[in-house]
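Quick one, tokens below:
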């Protein structure tokens, strides 16, 4: 599989998980967290073969479920360990059959798993290991009530592992009633970007973003590009614009069927399409090596979303470029992101592009007490100084 040396999170977490301790792990996106829990789980099952579901991995999205399932299948290829995936958008019958056929590892999204449990399709009374993967994203998506319900149906005598790219206060609260004397493993502070990612901001009017992106793509040497929009409709519109310009692109958002989402992901992963337009459903769970560029077509409203979007490039300590298109109305969002990650991103302009309003490339300066008194001194009828124009 190309593994030669463990990543930092693997080096720290694997021995602890093998020893049977609960873990609260935090590491940057793309640092190898999936293998850090998959390997010890496979080891446990192989050392002590028993029937029934032995391990449950809860994940926030279907895409992440597929990624985790692939890790178990690849690492357990020459063993008899079987994994089953429980996600929405797929028929119940096939999922029940996979479990009946002897799956020992269950990878599931909370909502669909709870549907199965409430129907009495199967029990988890033999469970030994529970993993909450990308726990912060599950909380963001409102899965906490489902997670609580699922926890009440699991054996209390179990090992629980919680992995996340950020350790928000909400994560700490969930850990307090889910984990028992956990070992904390924090490889990088939550807001840390993966090394090797180059980040730049292009100030541009919202009405010109599509035109700008097309011009930038034509002027830039790109191998594979993941483009994030804020809304499904925005993603649909942008995809049509890219295809009109003869770019090979696919689409990924919650309104697409599971078959369409899988097809788009596979085409992108195999290089049959060069670009994938997605909403934040894809910010996690995409494990595509060598994504050369991530483009924030819309500035994310939450700093954590920026971290996870940008984490799609520069994975496994490779290099990549993150590009953000910023309208004047999005300056506040960007300021929050810069504060969160502790970095002021360079602003740039695209040579030869016909801007309707010339971009100003200096980041805004923090307001001081002098600014407050200066505003009062000018009075309502006097001209104001420009703060930061796009």
């Amino acid at each position: 599989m190309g593994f030669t040396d463990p990543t930092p999170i693997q080096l720290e977490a694997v021995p602890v998980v093998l020893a049977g301790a609960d873990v609260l792990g935090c590491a940057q996106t793309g640092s190898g967290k999936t293998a850090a829990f998959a390997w010890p789980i496979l080891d446990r099952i192989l050392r002590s073969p028993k029937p029934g579901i032995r391990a449950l991995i809860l994940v926030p999205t279907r895409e992440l479920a597929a990624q985790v399932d692939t890790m178990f299948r690849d690492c357990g290829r020459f063993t008899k360990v079987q994994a089953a995936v429980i996600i929405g958008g797929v028929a119940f019958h096939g999922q029940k059959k996979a479990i009946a056929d002897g799956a020992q590892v269950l990878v599931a999204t909370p909502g669909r798993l709870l549907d199965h449990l409430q129907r009495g399709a199967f029990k988890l009374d033999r469970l030994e290991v529970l993993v909450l993967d990308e726990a912060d994203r599950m909380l963001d998506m409102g899965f906490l009530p489902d997670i609580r319900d699922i926890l009440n149906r699991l054996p209390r005598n179990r090992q629980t592992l919680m992995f996340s790219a950020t350790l928000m206060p909400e994560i700490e609260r969930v850990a307090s009633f889910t984990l028992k004397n956990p070992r904390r493993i924090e490889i990088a502070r939550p807001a840390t970007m993966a090394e090797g990612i180059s980040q730049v901001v292009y100030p541009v009017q919202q009405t010109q973003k599509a035109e700008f992106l097309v011009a930038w793509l034509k002027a830039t040497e790109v191998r594979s590009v993941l483009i994030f929009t804020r809304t499904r409709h925005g993603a649909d519109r942008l995809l049509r614009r890219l295809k009109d310009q003869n770019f090979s692109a696919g689409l990924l958002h919650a309104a697409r069927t599971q078959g369409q989402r899988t097809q788009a992901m596979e085409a992108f992963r195999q290089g049959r399409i060069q670009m994938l337009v997605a909403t934040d459903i894809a910010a996690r769970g995409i494990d595509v090596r060598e994504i050369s560029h991530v483009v924030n077509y819309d500035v994310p409203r939450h700093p954590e979303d920026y971290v996870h979007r940008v984490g799609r490039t520069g994975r496994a300590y490779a290099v990549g470029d993150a590009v953000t298109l910023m309208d004047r109305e999005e300056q506040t969002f960007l300021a929050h992101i810069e504060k969160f990650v502790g970095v002021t991103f360079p602003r740039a302009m695209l040579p030869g592009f016909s801007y309707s309003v010339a971009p100003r490339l200096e980041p805004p300066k923090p307001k001081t007490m002098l600014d407050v008194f200066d505003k009062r001194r000018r009075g309502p009828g006097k001209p104001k100084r420009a703060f930061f124009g796009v």
